[in-house]
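Support request, please re-run this one:
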Amino acid sequence: MSATITPLHRPGRDEGVRAATLRGLLLARALDDARRAHGFTTRELASAMSMSPAMLNRVMTGRRTPTPLEIGGLCAVLDIPAPRRPVLYRLVRESGRTDWISTPADGEQPLAQIEAAAHSVTWFAPDLIPRPLRTTAYSRAVLTATGAHPDTPAPTTPDTASTEVIHRFLIHPRALSHPTVPEAVMREQVRHLREAHLSTTRLLPRTVAPHPGFRVLRIAHFPPVVHIEHHTTAVVLERPDATAPHTAFLRDIEAVSLGREDTRQALSGRGDNG
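Re-run finished. Output below.
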């Protein structure tokens, strides 16, 4: 029986308006958040910037990139803190780019900003339990195997994310065992899945074809965004031609995923009996 967990639609701030690129969207959200925090209406801010309300609205929705002079003025009028301004300037400079590859050495990590814009995140986990669902003992056991550095920022988890974000997890059965994880630790991890995360977790049939793990982040009025993590490198895909294979694969496995009760029974057998 299909066990697709239907995502809840979260309307955007400007229903039907779509930013040109993901960087443009992040820039627009940052500026609009600052506008709201200062209590400006769009018309008031446009007047302060000597811009027309229509032109400013296009900036605030990501359909138009501000010029270097305009972003400097917006940062000044909106009193954006000095440490934050280089991030916005960089988004302006790179607003037309759609490639995202980052490592901890890059400094500013875009994932937190992208996650903050999402209304739902669906995880496909073929080999390891997703980080938001891991017990402390399991995390320690797989640290060496995954090659992740202890200081590598983890994706936003259900406990730390906004309550507006819906997380769903599709887990392949082979993720319920791992050569570096002691059996007792794995049983504890599986029981944790069953007792704490059954509402958002579904197991997949063993017949699901191997495929590298990824996440699909859905953002109102923007194509699905795909995040692939390889060791300490984060790759984010936003072009529809690049994300289409992942979203199509996700639809297929959601259609064959186990129902809640079947998932519970499978986790009960694995967690209780090893």
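Confidence is low (pLDDT under 50) at residues 1-15, 149-162. DSSP finds ten helices and seven strands in the chain.
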